[in-house]
Amino acid sequence: SAVISQKPSRDICQRGTSLTIQCQVDSQVTMMFWYRQQPGQSLTLIATANQGSEATYESGFVIDKFPISRPNLTFSTLTVSNMSPEDSSIYLCSVEAGGGGNEQFFGPGTRLTVL
Amino acid sequence: AQSVTQPDIHITVSEGASLELRCNYSYGATPYLFWYVQSPGQGLQLLLKYFSGDTLVQGIKGFEAEFKRSQSSFNLRKPSVHWSDAAEYFCAVVASGGSYIPTFGRGTSLIVHP
């Protein structure tokens, strides 16, 4: 298993500002994932982050809005840029369990409110 | 592409009663199937998973799920619900032999009455 921590756990931000969310894993992993969970909704994958390469973004998400860094095998950041109230969501990072299990371990999430 | 349907947005049960949460999937072959639970303010925790073999799988916290190929279903069950089971439950599917990225259902919110 993997233990994942996220910072901050929650934040309230003003429209037009940016917030960087950190994700730390207690073991080295190849793939890290960033999800958005809008109020009352399911999880939507934003992007997949590999160490040493550009993140791969899902349809509807762009790098200018959600830049991602992956400087090493245990850490990643997601920035939510030029925020609007529509960006109010829970943002979760996850890692694949490995060993062909296909399940994912999730961080506790960052609850973002944009005013 | 695969998809997941959780037809119940909310389920309310009394503590001690049995529980069944429904999940239907759409995929051309047998997928990998998962149930996750999200307690308030927490991330998702894996309850159980199905890859192949025995269609009745046991998970943590007394949960089980049964894969029924003929119905494209993977319903989650628990014989006696505890108040601490109140949470959001997500069914997820991963295409076997394809992308490892899960597709999640919309979630079912479980409310437990004392």
Quickly describe the structure:
Chain A is mainly beta. Chain A is 0% helix and 51% strand.
Throw out a few tags for this protein:
heterodimer, A: mainly beta, seven-stranded mixed sheet, 11 strands, B: 114 residues, mainly beta, six-stranded mixed sheet, four-stranded antiparallel sheet
What order do the helices and strands come in, and which of them pair?
The complex is a heterodimer of chains A (115) and B (114).
Chain A: E1 4-7, E2 10-13, E3 19-25, E4 31-37, E5 43-50, E6 56-57, E7 68-72, E8 75-80, E9 89-96, E10 104-106, E11 110-114
Parallel strand pairs in A: 2-11
Antiparallel strand pairs in A: 1-3, 3-8, 4-5, 4-9, 5-6, 7-8, 9-10, 9-11
Chain B: E1 3-5, E2 10-14, E3 19-21, E4 24-26, E5 32-38, E6 44-50, E7 56-58, E8 64-68, E9 73-78, E10 87-94, E11 103-104, E12 108-113
Parallel strand pairs in B: 2-12
Antiparallel strand pairs in B: 1-4, 3-9, 5-6, 5-10, 7-8, 8-9, 10-11, 10-12
Describe the structure.
The complex is a heterodimer of chains A (115) and B (114). In chain A, strands 2, 4, 5, 6, 9, 10 and 11 form a seven-stranded mixed beta sheet that branches. Chain A has a four-stranded antiparallel beta sheet with strand order 1-3-8-7, with no helix packed on it. The radius of gyration of chain A is 13 Å and the shape is globular. Chain A has strands at residues 4-7, 10-13, 19-25, 31-37, 43-50, 56-57, 68-72, 75-80, 89-96, 104-106, 110-114. Chain A is built from no helices and eleven strands. The relative contact order of chain A is 0.34. In chain A, 0% of the residues lie in helices and 51% in strands. Chain A is mainly β and 115 residues long. The N and C termini of chain A lie far apart (37 Å). Chain B is an all-beta fold. Helices cover 0% and strands 51% of the residues of chain B. In chain B, the strands form three sheets. In chain B, strands 2, 5, 6, 10, 11 and 12 form a six-stranded mixed beta sheet that branches. In chain B, strand 10 (87-94) and strand 11 form a beta hairpin. The mean pLDDT of chain B is 91. The A-B interface holds A 4, 31, 33, 41-43, 45, 48, 92, 94, 96, 101-109, 111 and B 32, 34, 36, 41-46, 49, 51, 90, 94, 100-102, 104-107.
